[in-house]
Design a protein that fits this description.
Layout (H helix, E strand, L loop, with lengths): L22 H9 L10 E3 L3 E3 L25 E7 L5 H12 L7 E5 L7 E5 L4 E2 L8 E6 L7 H11 L15 E3 L45 E3 L15 H10 L3
Helix pairs in contact: 2-3
């Protein structure tokens, strides 16, 4: 068991979170023209990384344990490395996103050390994306310097790495949103597949930082998702994790 020294940072109040574009607007713009290159993952649902086409039809977490382990002190320590190509300002936004989890949960992101076998490597690759859950070894989480450095986007990708999927893919989503596949870009229909998610006893959350906005993957500017029964409910504009996001995180990791 290693002993680590932690620097306690002030948690920035919610009102200080940048009220920039919604997460899904950021992801759609940043990931729109990515060309798949050898050695890079395939992206589904906009920003979820998979290694092979075989993973498209099943959440990789369903076939093995993908949660990060809890230590005897009750905390979940997740090592991370931030690539040195970020500016001081970009790095501070990323670190603030990492530290935001410690004030609301038992998750503790800490800088990696030489003996770590599993860690997140936060890098500016093409676009914003993450794998779902713990993969083992060096696990890249991409936050492209060109368009991905926002507080809500950092939290969104970190929640993927912790094992969470998008809100609109929840198993019960048909009770809360109507998906209009006729407005979806041809070939992108798979982004609206439902997953047998663990909803942690929480309601569908239109204000989740994991919820995409209503015209995501639209081919004609028309909605691809409409809330029901009230079509006017605000959708996908969270500046940061919602109370339900936090509750699910604490339930999953038994914080």
């Amino acid at each position: 068991m290693f002993a680590w020294t932690f620097v306690v940072l002030l948690v920035v109040p919610s009102s200080w979170a940048e009220r920039g574009p919604s997460v899904s607007e950021v992801l759609e713009k940043a990931n729109a023209n990515i060309v798949h290159r050898v050695g890079q993952p395939i992206l589904i649902e906009g920003d979820i990384a998979i290694d092979t086409d075989a993973e498209r039809n099943a959440d990789p977490c369903t076939s093995y344990g993908c949660m990060w382990g809890k230590w005897s002190d009750g905390f979940v320590y997740i090592p991370y490395y931030i690539a040195n190509h970020y500016s001081d300002r970009e790095r501070s936004i990323i670190i603030r996103g990492l530290e935001s989890f410690s004030s609301v949960s038992c998750i503790r992101f800490r800088p990696t050390i030489s003996t770590d076998t599993d860690w997140l490597s936060i890098e500016s690759q093409d676009g914003c994306w993450s794998y779902v859950g713990r993969r083992g070894g060096k696990q890249v989480l991409s936050l492209d310097r060109n368009g991905c450095i926002y507080h809500n986007t950092v939290q969104h990708e970190l929640l993927h790495a912790l094992g969470f999927n998008h809100e609109q893919t929840r198993s019960d989503r048909d009770n809360y949103i109507r998906v209009l596949l006729e407005n979806v870009i041809s070939g992108m229909e798979h982004n609206f597949r439902k997953i047998n998610t663990l909803n942690q006893g929480t309601p569908y959350d239109y204000g989740s930082v994991m919820q995409y906005f209503r015209t995501a993957f639209s081919k004609n500017g028309q909605p691809t998702m409409i809330p029901i029964p009230d079509p006017n409910v605000e959708l996908g504009n969270a500046p940061e994790m919602s109370s339900n996001d936090i509750k699910r995180l604490n339930t999953l990791y038994k914080c």
